[in-house]
Amino acid sequence: MTTKTIDGKTYLIGKPLIFPQYQGKEYGLAVQSLMDDMIRECATELLNATKFTADSPLLDRIQRLLNALLRKWENKFLSDIPLLASRMLLGIDKASSIAVNASLKDISKELLINPSFLMEGALRPLFEAEITKNVNLFKTIPTEFFSEVQDTVIKSIVQGRGMADLVPYFQGFAQSDFHPHTFHKNYAYNRALDQTRKAYQSANTMRVTKAGATDFMWVHSGGSPDPDPTHVEMNGKIYSFDNPPVIMKRRGVDVHGLPSERPNCRCIMRVVFKIGDKFV
Asked: What's the domain count of the chain?
């Protein structure tokens, strides 16, 4: 535990709530694997379709194939993502409980902290909302992917060199040499990792505010080669949960939030209590 005095107020500061990288990595790899399987199957099926041209026009046959694959993978994502997200959230719940408990351990020698921060089962509504958010985020991947493939096929057949363009294109992402440009290699992995960070931050916030904390200290990750200067500036500063700092601009409007809430933000927080506050 450390103390810090700002504007005449003294704060007790707990350990940083460090993000469990293994939880994010596990979820990221699982979602990326699902997407990779979709891409490889699509490429394999399309390569097989290009071997035969006598039974029907190539474009019509590929269109039917893409429609069938889209339906299959839309259903696959809708069934698998909730299971993958639930597994991730169970791990995050445990990691959050351990981290918050350790952070408050020393502080609790000085303050009477509300034990409701343990909140057995109280995070269910939060996690149900997180699962819905993850489903909504990832369920569009098949539609986006097959739409891009369809556009490439049409342009190659109608405007380009036909098979001379398509075969190398399909072979490339069948062998994982590249993904279509909308989906860089770590597209789904990075999205899933970002969602894991946000879920961890949400669980921590619920726990520490239930314990009576009204403030937190921003901790910049320092792990990015191109860090956001505003997040660097916030490092070590104390903010209120009720009035968090500006974390980014969206369409020219200031957006307030907590660490990890901006896309791809790796910042975390420390638990903070003001000496003199009353806890029950």
From this structure: 1
Find residue 217's DSSP bridge partners: 238, 270
In this structure, is residue 142 part of a structural domain? Answer: yes
- Write out the chain's pLDDT in tens, 280 residues: 678 777 777 888 888 999 999 999 999 999 989 988 898 888 888 888 776 554 456 778 888 899 999 999 999 999 999 999 999 999 999 999 889 988 887 776 666 666 555 555 667 888 889 999 999 999 999 998 888 888 887 777 777 666 666 777 777 766 665 555 556 667 888 999 999 999 999 999 998 988 888 899 999 977 667 777 888 889 989 999 999 998 888 888 889 999 999 988 899 999 888 876 544 3
**What is the spatial distance between Cα 49 and Cα 67, in angstroms, rounded to a whole number?**
14
Phi/psi at 53 (5° precision): -130, 0
Instruction: Look at the chain and count its residues.
Output: 280
Long-range contact set of residues 105-111: C-beta below 8 Å, sequence gap at least 24:
106/1, 106/14, 106/15, 107/1, 107/12, 107/14, 107/271, 107/273, 109/1, 110/1, 110/12, 110/275, 111/12, 111/212, 111/273, 111/277, 111/279
Which residues form the domain of 188? 2-274
H-helix or E-strand spanning residue 81: helix 58-107
Whether residue 209 is contained in a domain is answered as yes
C-alpha angle 272-254-268 in degrees, rounded to nearest 5: 30
- Residue 139 covered by a domain: yes
H or E segment and range at residue 78: helix 58-107
Residue 56: inside a domain: yes
